[in-house]
C-alpha cells in the first residue's frame, strides 16, 4: 500500500525523507561497482515480482516480497526499493513525490529488519528450516510494513486512526500469502543456488578480486 | 493493486512515449533541459502539498493539466492510470468525512459526515492528482536513461544512478522472462487459484527468477569488465541550460511563488 501526496503531515514527510536518506546511504556503502549489476538485476526482478497477482477468492492481490528483498539484499533493499518507487511514481503515475521518503521507509525498514532476523536461519543446511525462515521473513515483512503505514497515518492526525486500523487488517491476508510464496522461493533458492542468500550482504567492501589474489600466496 | 501497471505496458520503456515523440515533432516539454524539468516537478510538489485552500488548489491541478497537454502525452492511458490510482485512495477519501469531527454535512445510515472531512478529502484528491500529473508530464515524458543522466548531473550519488539505470534496463528483460515462465507453466496446465499448490508454484517461479537474475548479473559483470568498465558514467549527451530553459524556470518559479500569495489573499477576503 503506497501513500499518496497530501495525506501525511509535514513532520512525518520530513522524518521519512531523513531516515530513508540514511538507509540509502548505508545501502550504497556496500554497493561496490562489482555488485551493481547483481543489485540492479535483482531490483528489476523484485519490481516484476510485484506485478504477479495471486487470486484470492473472486479478487486478487499482488505480491510485495519486501521480506524476500531483505533476505537477499540487506541494506541494499533501501536503494533498490527507492528506485522501484521512483520509477512507479514517474512512469506509472502511482504513489507520489513528496511521500517517496515515507513510502521507501515503510517498505525497506521492515525488509532490513527481517533480513537481519532470519538470514542465519535461511542459510541453515536444513531445507525445512530455510523455508520456515522464508515464511517468517515474508509474513513479518508485510505485517511490519502494514504497521508502519498505520503508524505514519496515526502520526499525521487523529482522523486517520480508523483508516490506520483498516490498513493493518487488510495486510493480514497479504502477509499470509506473501509468507507462503516467500517460503517456497527460499526453499528453491536454498536447493538451487544457496549463495544467492549471501551475495549482497557480506560486510561492506569485501572486494572479491582481492580475495582471489590472496589465494596463490602460500 | 498493480493492475494499473497494465499487461501490455509493464515496462517503463514500453510506456515511455518520448520515443514516439522524438520521432515526430518534439513537444515543447521534450525540448527543455531534463534537469529543469525534474527540479520544476519537485518544487511544484512541495508548494502544492503546502497549500490548504480548496479553491487555490484547483490552480495546481489546472497547471498540471496544461503541462499534460503541452507534453503531448497520450491523454487516454494517462488519465486512465490516474483514475485507477484514485480508485485505490477512494477508501481513504470516503472514510475521512466520517472520521473528521465537525459540523455534519449529510447523515448516512446514522453516521454524520462532516464538512471539514469532506474538505480534507477533496484537498487530498486535488493534491495527489495534480502532483502525479505534473510529475508524469514533466519527468515521465523523458527517456528513463535521460532521467538517470539528469539525476547524476543533479549530484545524485553515482552508484544510485547506476542502480536506477540497471533496474530500468532489466525490468523489460526480466518481464519478458517472467512471461516466458508463465507460458511454460500454462502449457503444463497451471491455473492459479487460492490454494497451497498455486502459492508454492508461484514461489518457485519467483525463486527461479531470482536465481536466473543473479546468473544473468554475473554474465553482465563479465561483459562489462571485458569492455573496460571502470565505474564512471560515460555520457554521450551534453546538457547545457539554454535561454528557453532559464525562461521556463523563472516563469514556473514565479507561478509557484504566486500560489501561497493567492492563498493568503483569498483567506483574508473570505
Runs of chain A in which pLDDT lies below 50 for 5 or more consecutive residues are 203-218
Characterize the main sheet of chain B: 2 strands, antiparallel
Mean pLDDT of chain A: 87
The strand line-up of the biggest sheet of chain A is: 1-2
Strand content of chain A: under 5%
Which fold name fills CATH's third level, the topology of chain A?
Arp2/3 complex 21 kDa subunit ARPC3
Topology order of chain B in helix (H) and strand (E) letters: HHHHHEEHHHHH
Residue-averaged pLDDT of chain B:
83
**What's the structural domain tally of chain B?**
2
Shape of chain A: globular
Determine Rg of chain A (CA atoms, Å).
Answer: 18 Å
Enumerate how many helices of chain B there are, as a single number.
Answer: 10
Rg over C-alpha atoms of chain B, rounded to the nearest angstrom: 23 Å
Question: How would you characterize the overall build of this protein?
Answer:
The complex is a heterodimer of chains A (218) and B (270). In chain A, helix 3 packs across helix 5 and helix 3 crosses helix 6. Chain A is built from eight helices and two strands, in the order H-H-E-E-H-H-H-H-H-H. Helix content of chain A is 69%, strand content 4%. Chain A is mainly α and 218 residues long. In chain B, helix 4 packs parallel to helix 6 and helix 5 packs antiparallel against helix 6. The two termini of chain B are 41 Å apart. Chain B has a two-stranded antiparallel sheet with strand order 1-2. Helix content of chain B is 71%, strand content 3%. Chain B contains ten helices and two strands. The N terminus of chain B is likely disordered. Chains A and B meet through helix 1, helix 2, strand 1, helix 4 and helix 7 of A and helix 3, helix 5, helix 6, helix 8 and helix 9 of B.
